[in-house]
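To the wet lab folks,

You asked to see what we're planning to order before we commit. Fair enough. Below is the target structure as C-alpha cells, and below that is the sequence we designed to fit it. If anything looks off to you, flag it before the synthesis order goes out.
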C-alpha cells in the first residue's frame, strides 16, 4: 500500500497528451484458477477506429489476490503485451478504474505511469463512490463522488443501456477522458478499443491449454525481485530489491521503443 501511495502522488490529472492517432484498449483475464495472468491489447486508429494490430501476453501470476491491489497482479502481463506492439499508442483505454479507486491508483493509473503513456479508466462497474443515474441520453453524465471528491464520471454511452464509469488514468483530465470515451463508442456500450481487447481475452480463454504453456519471467512489479525484462524474454539480472519504477514502452519520435525506467 505504501508503494501505491507513492504511485498515486505521481498521477497527473491535467491534460498532457498530443493529438491521438492511435488508441489502445487493454483488458486482463486469468487462466488456471488465477495461476496465469493473460493481458490483451488492441490498437485502433483514431478517430475512425480501424483495428491496426493486437497482442496477447501470458505471465505466471506472482502477486497474491489482495482487494485494492489488483493492478499489481495484472501489470506485468499488461506491460508485456504493450511491449509486443509495433505501433506506439498515443492513448490507453483500460477496462478498469483509474483514480476511481480507494487509494486513487487503479489499473489505468498504474499502467499509464508504468508505460509513460496517457491513460483513461473505463470500467463496467463501480468500485467506490456514490451511485447516481445519468439522464437516458447518449453523452449524459453525472460526477462520481467519493467523500466529497469527484473521482470520475458515470457516463451514458448508449440510450437504454447501463452507463460506464470513466476516470482519469494519467496525464488526461476528466473532461478529456469523457470526450475520448464517447468518441470511441460506436454501436456498443463499451469503447471499441476495450471491447476488442475484451473479445481477445475471451477468445484466448477458450483456447487456453490445460497444461502450463511457456511463460516469460515476471517483470518488476514493485514487489518482485527480478531484473528489467528484455524483448528476447531473458532477464537482465537480479534486482537488489523493490522499486517504484518499471521498464516501460514509451516510444521516441520515430516510434522506436526507448525502454527507459519510469
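Sequence we intend to order:
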Amino acid at each position: 500500500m505504501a508503494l501505491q501511495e507513492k504511485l498515486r502522488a505521481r498521477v497527473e490529472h491535467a491534460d498532457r497528451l498530443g493529438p491521438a492517432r492511435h488508441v489502445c484498449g487493454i483488458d486482463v483475464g486469468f487462466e488456471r484458477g488465477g495461476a496465469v495472468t493473460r493481458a490483451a491489447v488492441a490498437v485502433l486508429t483514431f478517430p475512425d477506429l480501424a483495428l491496426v494490430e493486437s497482442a496477447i501476453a501470458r505471465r505466471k501470476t506472482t502477486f497474491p489476490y489482495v482487494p485494492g491491489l489488483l493492478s499489481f497482479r495484472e501489470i506485468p502481463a499488461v506491460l508485456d503485451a504493450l511491449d509486443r506492439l509495433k505501433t506506439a499508442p498515443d492513448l490507453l483505454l483500460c477496462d478498469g478504474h483509474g483514480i476511481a479507486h480507494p487509494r486513487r491508483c487503479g489499473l489505468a493509473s498504474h499502467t499509464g505511469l508504468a508505460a509513460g503513456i496517457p491513460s483513461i479508466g473505463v470500467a463496467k462497474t463501480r468500485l467506490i463512490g456514490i451511485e447516481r443515474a445519468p439522464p437516458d441520453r447518449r453523452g449524459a453524465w453525472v460526477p462520481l463522488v467519493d467523500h466529497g471528491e469527484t473521482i470520475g464520471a458515470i457516463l451514458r454511452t448508449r440510450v437504454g443501456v447501463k452507463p460506464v464509469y470513466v476516470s482519469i488514468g494519467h496525464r488526461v483530465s476528466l473532461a478529456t477522458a469523457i470526450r475520448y470515451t464517447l468518441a470511441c463508442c460506436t454501436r456498443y456500450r463499451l469503447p471499441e478499443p476495450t471491447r476488442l481487447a475484451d473479445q481477445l481475452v475471451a477468445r484466448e480463454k477458450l483456447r487456453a491449454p490445460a497444461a502450463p504453456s511457456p511463460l516469460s519471467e515476471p517483470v518488476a512489479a514493485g514487489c518482485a525481485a527480478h531484473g528489467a525484462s528484455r524483448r528476447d524474454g531473458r532477464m537482465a539480472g537480479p534486482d537488489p530489491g523493490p522499486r517504484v519504477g518499471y521498464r516501460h514502452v514509451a516510444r521516441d519520435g520515430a516510434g522506436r521503443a526507448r525502454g527507459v525506467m519510469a
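Structural context that might help your review: The CA atoms of residues 15 and 176 lie 7 Å apart. Residues 2-207 form a domain with the archaeoglobus fulgidus dsm 4304 fold fold (CATH 3.30.2170.10).

Thanks,
Computational group
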